[in-house]
Design brief:
CATH architecture of the largest domain: 2-Layer Sandwich
Distance between the termini: 86 Å
CATH topology of the largest domain: D-amino Acid Aminotransferase, Chain A, domain 1
Number of strands: 20
Strand order of the largest sheet: 13-12-9-10-11-14-19-18
Strand content: 15-25%
Radius of gyration: 25 Å
Largest sheet: 8 strands, antiparallel
Structural class: alpha+beta
Number of helices: 16
Shape: globular
Number of domains: 4
CATH class of the largest domain: Alpha Beta
Bound molecules: ligand MV4
Helix content: 25-40%
Length: 493
């Protein structure tokens, strides 16, 4: 067992704040790091101590390993939590911390390295009975030979960069005549974007759902899963709405996917919290895509339905504790949704819309959670991710969680930047979303700027009807009151 008395959070914004809240709850001191534009950010004000890393660009602040290590040593922190993004999936950073006698709150170097390469990941899980999309399991060097393999797999084919991930470095090849040209492009793109030209091919699953499984493993060989998150509502590989559980998994399929995710974690000796991504085809067949070796943005929906604080679990595992529960102890309670509130204008092609947060009033109430890192009056820096907040709602049923989301969206008052709140309302009012019958093409298929106006108009129409009903009822009551009052007053005369 190791002791952790002080955690340096190598991140900013909502996730830095969220991690510190759990650390504080556990009696662990916190150190914030910040760039020059984040000097007065909530994560800095919340922390017990704070260290300035340097100028605003991440490459001069949040990504500089030397500065982070020095800040940890200077403040006497014994562990570093990387959050998501930045250095969270950087094996060099994890190794550096080990060399510096600092605890990296995350998985081991092997897991990060293996899962950072899609081909290495495929190789690692190959003996673990994990369903995979038909395709090649080695980097393609001979394009004409690959073309023959592609014919066997069948078109459309998807070319993926081994070093890619999250949708980067992918190309669809619709038919054989395009194969050679698309392959050449994919390889040169992979070389220029990732410095690694390794690409492979897979059958392109045309209308999948994106289902991911949360896993948790300790250093003593215990691994469990915490069920799934449905992440199909995304735009250009940027998730916008996530939920747990998925509306379409049967208990049997859930158990099967969960068990497969646990095996993926075991295949790379995983430790801590991780996420195994799958494609789900026809609500029935699932295929392993990749594993994310970090705490994910959308982890709160899992926390809401399991009652487990994932950051607390990460810290416990990093201290060397055994998991205090087994798979059988875990159950799903209720339903949770998350809307990512980005400072982007959904009416204008999701253009970044930064500026001053003139008005910022959070929705409140039972079943509403807001994870954010801003306060009213702050300027939103242009240097980082444009996500302002995560709006999370919880209900006993999916329907209740959706209703709560609609109320929370309308209670959320943001003036200054345009946000994706109206987009969230559009999703929550859409028939395909309500019925659960949607896939990764939801946004492309149904969303237009006009649909926001329509969904807004519909809301206004409903609001007008409610107002009218209330008015008529009030009028009736008012009449009664007047009558009563006049009778009463008459009686006094
Ligand atoms: C696929 C696929 C279809 N067929 N692989 C995108 C992110 C990366 N993790 C893998 N991705 C995909 N891989 C095969 N063989 C479709 C996607 C995909 C996707 C996956 C999850 C969520 C959104 C997506 C949007 C477009 C494509």
């Amino acid at each position: 067992m190791k002791t952790i008395t002080k955690i340096l959070v190598a991140n900013r914004g909502e996730i830095a704040l969220r991690i510190m809240k759990t650390a504080r709850k556990m009696g662990i001191a916190t150190v914030a790091v910040y760039s020059e534009v984040d000097r007065e950010a909530p994560h800095v004000l919340y922390a017990d101590e704070a260290v300035c890393l340097g100028p605003a660009p991440s490459s001069e602040s949040y990504l500089v390993m030397d500065k982070l290590v020095a800040a940890a040593h200077d403040t006497g922190a014994d562990a570093i939590h990387p959050g998501y993004g930045f250095l969270s999936e950087n094996a060099t950073f994890a190794q550096r911390l080990a060399d510096e006698n600092l605890i990296f709150i995350g998985p081991g170097i092997k897991a990060i390295t293996v899962m950072g390469s899609k081909l290495a990941a495929k190789e690692a899980v190959s003996d673990y009975d994990i369903p995979m999309v038909p395709g090649t399991d080695e980097a393609i060097t001979d394009i004409p030979a690959a073309k023959k393999l592609a014919a066997g797999i069948g078109y459309p084919i998807l070319v993926k960069a081994s070093a890619g991930g999250g949708g980067k470095g992918m190309r669809v090849v619709e038919q054989e005549s395009e194969f050679i040209e698309q392959m050449e492009r994919a390889i040169s793109e992979a070389e220029s974007s990732f410095g690694d030209g390794a690409v492979f091919i897979e059958k392109y699953v045309t209308s999948p759902r994106h289902i991911e499984i949360q896993v948790l493993a300790d250093q003593h060989g215990n691994t469990v899963h915490l069920f799934e998150r449905e992440c199909s509502i995304q735009r250009r590989h940027q998730k916008v709405v996530e939920e747990a559980p998925s509306a379409v998994l049967t208990p049997e399929l859930r158990a099967e996917m969960g068990a497969a995710a646990v095996r993926v974690a075991q295949a790379c000796d995983y430790e801590g919290a991780g996420t195994v991504e799958f494609l789900l085809e026809g609500n029935k067949h699932f295929y392993f895509l990749e594993m994310n070796t970090r705490l994910q943005v959308e982890h709160p929906v899992t926390e809401m339905i399991t009652g487990i604080d994932l950051v607390e679990q990460q810290i416990r595992v990093a201290r060397g504790e055994k998991l205090s529960f087994s798979q059988e102890d875990l159950t799903i309670h209720g339903h949770a949704l998350e809307l990512r509130v980005y400072a982007e204008d959904p009416m204008d092609n999701f253009l970044p819309s930064v500026g001053n947060l003139e008005t910022y009033i959070r929705p409140e109430g039972e079943g509403i959670r807001v994870d954010d890192g801003f306060e009213q009056g702050m300027d939103i820096p242009i240097y980082y991710d444009p996500m302002l907040a995560k709006l999370i709602t919880y209900g006993h049923t999916r329907k209740e969680a959706i209703e709560k989301m609609k109320v929370a969206i309308s209670d959320y008052k943001i003036k200054g930047p345009k946000t994706t709140l109206p987009f969230g309302a559009f999703v929550c009012n859409h028939e395909a979303f309500l019925s659960g019958d949607f896939d990764t093409h939801f946004v492309k298929k149904y969303f237009t700027p006009e649909s926001i106006e329509e969904s807004g108009a519909k809301e206004k129409e409903v609001a007008a009807k409610v107002a009218l009903k209330l008015y008529l009822e009030n009028k009736a009551v008012l009449k009664e009151n007047i009558k009563e009052n006049s009778e009463w007053s008459n009686s006094r005369v």
